[in-house]
Specification:
By secondary structure, the chain is of the alpha+beta class. About 15% of the residues lie in helices and about 15% in strands. The protein has a three-stranded antiparallel beta sheet, with no helix packed on it. Strands 4-5 form a two-stranded antiparallel sheet. It starts with 14 loop residues before the first strand and ends in a 15-residue tail after the last helix. About 10% of the residues are buried.
Length: about 130
């Protein structure tokens, strides 16, 4: 057997269009022998993204979720296209915040509710 003289082959996934919004998304292999659809050309700071949504690129082109908290302040990551897709509802990233928003919406409704209507006035007799 000969020595491998080529560079290691990167796992190319290519791009596809999102079926919801029609924008391009990067199809990238994961460490788990699966694929994830990532937002193209977006590399936010990892500490700005919730731990379970940070995808870190490895040297062979694959990605893995990076749940280290707190990450290095200069670490960059990728995010799934579904989080940025304008045609899909944003997932519940922070359940306690969603609950708080729901409770605040109910508070606003109670605050704006004028209360029960006053009793109708007596109509004068037509007789």
């Amino acid at each position: 057997m000969g020595v491998l003289e080529e560079k290691p082959r990167r796992l190319g996934g290519g791009q596809s269009r999102c079926p919801y919004c029609g924008l391009l998304q990067d199809r990238v292999a994961t460490l788990e022998q699966d694929w994830v659809l990532l937002e193209p050309d977006m590399h936010p700071l990892a500490h700005k993204v919730p731990a379970e949504h940070r995808w870190i690129e490895l040297s062979d082109g694959r990605v893995t979720v990076y749940g280290v908290c707190p990450p290095d302040q200069s670490q960059r990551c990728r995010v799934e296209h579904r989080l940025a897709c304008p045609a899909q509802p944003l997932p519940d990233l922070w359940p306690w915040l969603t609950s708080l928003r729901g409770e605040n919406a109910r508070r606003v409704e109670r605050q704006d509710d004028p209360g029960p209507p006053p009793p109708p006035e007596e109509w004068p007799d037509a007789g």
